[in-house]
User: Fold these one by one.
Assistant:
Number 1:
Amino acid sequence: MNLLIAWYDNLYNVLNTINVVILYVIGVPFGLQLIYMLLFWLPKKKWKKTSKINRIAVVIPAHNEEDVIYDTVKSVIEKQKYPKDMYDVYVIADNCNDKTKELALKAGAKKVYEHFDDDPKHHMVGYALKYGFAELLKEGIEYDFIIRLDADNHINDEFFSLMNDAYNAGAKIARPYESALNMTQNGFTKACGLYYTFDSRCSSRVRERLHLDAHVNGPGSLTDYQIIKRIGGYDTVTMCEDTEFNFKRMFEKYRCHYVEDAVVYEDLPSTMKDTLARNKRLGAGNTRMLIRYTPKLFFYTFKNLNFSFIENWLTYLFIPICPILCLWLPGFYIYAYIYHFMGNEADFSKNFLWFTNLDWVGYTTALIVFMISILFVFCGILQATLMVLSDYKKLGAKRRRDLLSGILLFPIFSIVYVVTITIGIFSPPKWEKVNRNKIKKDEAN
């Protein structure tokens, strides 16, 4: 019996030690996000206006996007306050069996590249972009930079002009402010939008002001055309090809910038089902990408003495942290409670309140758990409130109170995010079509 008790004691001690280490690891990226929130007051960077007009290629990958591609292309062509003869729109219709090509051309796309690949493992946006960029280079047209959009994206009217200013100021890689087309559709989209746009309003602004590299993801990103020519097109085909593309340019010592007044609006998932589809892709792709690039990110941190690499790693560490929050922490603390409760049946009150008898390690652990809980609830609501107070117009709302339900639902959506990302980590990577909420086909028919 004593041997059995000793075995349980040893197991608990081992698991508790592992738990303490995990909590410290979790605390670092959470602490970084807290710093970004506390630096909310930093002024945004303003890029110097320029009179030089550069030639732009707009590239849009699309997989069965007949619901939105017409409106997206037409909006880009007609609404930009930029010389019409200085930009062209190219659509890559990837394995489409709908009217994506016809509608894109009808809306005014210069050309649609049709890409067909029977290999289901290649049904990802990276392969579409690899093919499309190769075809674009064959055109022989000299562009200055490329703007990549998704099929459901819209951009503010000054987008090209603002990106042009940043390019002329030396930005070879840049990202815009990411907002939502359907922000006020329902409480779910409001909470979702506030969650995703935090990286634009807070994290990206602080990175730019502290001379750290921006996280340049796909929608609205700017890339110097000379980079595309040098690497021969597009050199990533993974599920998170945009993040990998950004990493590779960082390794080549390109600074990645943030242009805050240039806004890209994307269609947010409005249901649990669509959020799951989106986050399965993010969870599966980012986890595999992080495993692959962790050694290089640490290597280049010390090689270039650039904190941007570690900052990227810490931010993307939230992805593998999700299953820890979902599985490990609940499992461990349920086990810990049972262990302490069953350890001494004669003293029920002592074991029921076992956490009052912790040593310094236990107190430290409890403190970290408490801080994470506070960050999750209080700071989550606070950061959502700050977003609404400062950026409600960019978020597509006419009044601040229109986003009140999003603030209150923010912690709940955070739980949804963690759970769906966890499911995604254990799912095979796949480029799935997500239902669109902004369907405007009447004008095209």
Number 2:
Amino acid sequence: MNSESIIALLSFLGTLIGTSGGILTSAKLTNYRLELLEKKVDKHNSFAERIPVIEEKVRAQETRIDNLERNETI
């Protein structure tokens, strides 16, 4: 093999290794950010599930207050 072929082969291998490393790093970062986003969505979903329960409790308390106020005026 002549020196030009060896240089071309080494350049190709360097490019291949650099590109593969960049793709793997990018994929890891994307997976990490997706995990963070999933955690935020889970927090939001649990909050959305609790709101109707809180609203029902507030309605019950308002009813109790209304009943107490009516009984007080009698």
Number 3:
Amino acid sequence: MKRKEKKEKKKRHVHKFTFGVIFLDLVVIAALVVINTSEFKAFWIPTAMTTMTHKYLAYTLYDEDTVNKVMSENYIEQNTDEVNLDDVVIGDTSNKTHFVSKYEEDLYTRTPGNEVYKIIRLEEKKFKGYLTVIYDPADVDLAIPQKLGKAGESVNTLCKKNGGLVGINGGGFEDLDGWGNGSIPYGAIINNGELVWTHSGGSGQLIGFTKDHKLWLTNDDPATAISKGMEDAVEFGPNLIVNGKVSKIHGDGGWGTAPRSVIAQRRDGIVLFLIIEGRLPGYSIGATMNDVIEMLLRYGAYNAANLDGGASSTMSVNGKLYNKPSAGGEYGGRTVSNAWIATNKTRKACEGCITY
């Protein structure tokens, strides 16, 4: 009996081992099928190639020719029109009662006790994030570190030091091996009508606000932009929407699926700060440029531009980190080179005045 039991036990072990090997073979076959689909390549390669430290992941699965081919098929044809600033008419939006969509109704409906901004939670199938609505564009400012060129500061710190009630990160910076601390911004920075920083590596596109609080996206050089009325600006991109017309995205635009930061303005002057969380498996993967454009159009964005994304995508509310960044959350978010913030300056300067 004992010998027979041993034989049966041995057979069971053999069967389990055989089934295990078959299962692993099936997993490997399935993985090979998946990674060779055009859909997976279009997701994996641009997503890896737009990171600072994980480009190797693209080459782990694919050869150089495949990577180059996929990247050449995923790009953005930017809308190169000049922004028509006259299209943006800043007016009273506080008493609006007719809405063209549920998104517009949500946008215009103020949070009780808060006339400066409203935060709308976004929960889509692939990603989560926040849309901050700033009702008076005069409340929007660019905050820069005290030691610009030597050390960056977190969005939290930039908000606290500059009276920001809510803020998001702005332009990019040198990020060698993923250890950049925001100390060396890329491109130009204009603050209070003055060129305060310029450095190589920028996109050549200025994203900023004029003296009359209109979002201006321009390829003008900083000196020319300032002469035309640019008050605050950073150099980044690409432009996603210009005069209500979207840039054409081929594939995923070559920017992959990732955390995003975007700034936009509606025709009535309302400014939108968009933060998309990503690279957090099981919570939020991230968004493509097409995802971002679709989200912005829902809320009536007329002009919009991409800001620095990835781990830099951070949002501060009342001096505290509000979103879940893909890295650095335990430290209150990465230190960055600048931030777009919303203050309460209109109401401070005009106590008791009706500003809308």
